[in-house]
Amino acid sequence: QVQLVESGGGLVQAGGSLRLSCAASESIFRFNSMGWYRQAPGKQREMVATITSGGNTNYADSVKGRFTISRDNAKNTLYLQMNSMKPEDTAVYYCNARSGPVYSTKDYWGQGTQVTVSS
Fold first, then answer.
1. 77 Cβ partners below 8 Å, 6+ apart?
2. Mean pLDDT, consecutive 10-residue segments, the chain of 119 residues?
């Protein structure tokens, strides 16, 4: 069973920065894509950013230009650099990894890390 462990969350003031990390228990080469999702209180989980095995990235409009997703295959780790943070970025952030063919994908999730942005 794949394990994903997030770290790097915390409390930051508006305009500040944080970097989240997601360490995988096995090689991330096997995943078609990896990504970061977040869930704020009372809201549905939403995609923040994704990156494919080929390095293609996709961002939610709300974070474009502020957040950067990257992966270090040698360290089996996914990152999310968050700059110019806003109070509306406050949420639990989850790491995701997706494997398998298009018709039968399997998702793996981390336990989540809390990010709080104060105004």
1. 21, 22, 23, 24, 28, 71
2. 95 98 94 96 97 95 98 96 98 96 90 97
